[in-house]
Amino acid sequence: MTFITKKNALLFVCLIAGHFLLAQIDKNATKETKNLYKNLKTISKKHILFGHQHALEYGHGWSNEPNRSDVKSVTGSHPAVIGIDFSDFSGRSKEQIENTKETLRKNVIATYERGGITTVSWHFNNPASEGGFYWKDGISTASMTLIKPGGSHHEQYKEILKTIADFAHSVKAKDGKLSPMIFRPFHEFDGDWFWWGKAQTSREDFIAVWQFTVSYLKDILGVHNFIYAFSPDNRFNSAEEYLERYPGDEYVDMLGMDDYGDFGRDGKYDVETGLKKLKIFSDLAIQKEKLAAFTETGLESIPNEKWWTEVLLKTLKSDNLQLSYVLVWRNDIASPTHYYAPFPGQVSEKDFVKFYDDPFTLFEKDIKNIYSSKFKI
Prior knowledge:
Residues 1-23 form the signal peptide. By secondary structure, the chain is an alpha/beta fold. It has helices spanning 6-22, 31-44, 70-75, 94-114, 144-147, 154-170, 203-220, 239-242, 271-288, 307-316, 349-357; strands spanning 48-53, 58-59, 62-63, 81-85, 117-121, 181-184, 226-230, 254-258, 291-297, 325-328, 361-362. The strands form two sheets. It has an eight-stranded parallel beta barrel. Strands 2-3 form a two-stranded antiparallel sheet. It is globular.
């Protein structure tokens, strides 16, 4: 029998509190980043934020117009989560890289100052071969083993990470604070379409590169405004499969999943299976005291006029999921079919307004003080 003394009780409380604090991997994270982390956890228990990739950079038939997004044109509010990409931070001329950084810098700061949230994907151009970020037979090189510590391209990889760190240090708002970002490197790694995918990369090499990336950014380059997200595609059916390439709790803040196939790709739904997968990593995040998010999904062209409420919202409200946000993919500038959020006149517009009006979903107008300890829903 164990007797609980005041001293033991205090120690127990401290251990529990310490464990919670350990959930965020960067102990030196900025105050705003720490507050964002905690507030996202709070949101996930009763609500979900809506996000859209490249929402402010361009949309259906337009680009580079101040304070515009297709979502705002439909609802009156920007998405709560805005997706950007570091794809042009390498494999481009210095001039192109600097131009991209300047455009994104303004985007990130403006989002922070409005009270929105930025998430960053990274379609990383292969540093060791031609072929861009996709795997192309006969062109691409299996390069994760080359960029890990000791690899032939490791020093080059460090220079690329310095470019990312420079950007992270540059997104300073008018209040003098750095804008926090959710950084999501090497996404969909369980597929074979990217050069860092499972078919081209051993488990050991993937984990080694992930661990080095996080450690180098936060511990050597001093990046303290990142929340790190781990997001495979939907090729798992158990917690064990989900964690097959997991780099460890010390290297991940957020668990996610990209899943188009179960929620409408080619007009084929398997929502029951998709929900099972969401539940797997949502439960893991609860156990590990991490964040969770539905990091990418969507129905291209949104031909189902009630997809937002009948498919997506119904799923997100199911089975006690605790997801901080859901993000749909981009609206292409010129393509008549490649879009994932509605615009005025699109067939799902009215249903999307119902999705927006539902108290469960939160858009940018619905959140205040997200970077403050004073945040309340």
